[in-house]
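so im writing up the methods section and need the Cobalt-precorrin-6A reductase CbiJ record in one place, dumping it here so i stop losing it
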Amino acid sequence: MILIFGGTSDSLDICDWLNARKRNYMVSVATDYGEKLAKQHADQVIGQRLDEEGMCRVMREKAVSLVIDATHPFAVEVSGNAMNAANKMKIPYIRYERPSGQADHLHLVRDIDEACQTASALGNRIFLATGSKNLPQYLEKLPGKYVIARVLPVSEVVAACEQLGLLADQIIAMKGPFSQSLNKELFKQTGAEVMITKESGAKGGFAEKVEACKELGIPCVVIRRPSLNYPEVLTRIDELEKYV
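--- predicted struct ---
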């Protein structure tokens, strides 16, 4: 049994790749939305947050022989737990990580604090292309700024944005992928003066956001992806062939 830690479009692509090869696998995701998407690709889905102990239990009960970590590049806690659990259970662990696709002439920062500090000095209308997870932190650290948040079109996410005080004009509820032209139009329509995003790679639409900003002359603040000491990192799905 192969255990995939997912929640990304990359993990769904891996599911399709394994389906084509008739491999036995299951997917673990942390959200209801992720579970709905995963069930469109995989027969066996775990739809709950697992800590390290929970991961060990699943690996033991399901006789897992390989762990593929295809979580978001910023889900470092999940990745850390998955690595530790696999190590404890003496199971091979593979990290699948999309290439970053980093571009030149960006404002590269380490974390949310530095991102907000940098963006505050660059403009007043700030477009957040970072999702909803850390939205309270951004709003707290961007006082007096007009923040536009692009989030998933899920009712509880939109409700959370409203509870944080965002108005309808400040909430863009859309699901990607977003093309360069669509990003450009959204930035223009919202009057964005600066954009904050994460170094999410090709699948995360990183290049399309950066190029749209470049075309409009909008500063782009990029939070660098965290770096973990992964034992094995793959950047192409076909590289899994020798492991499965």
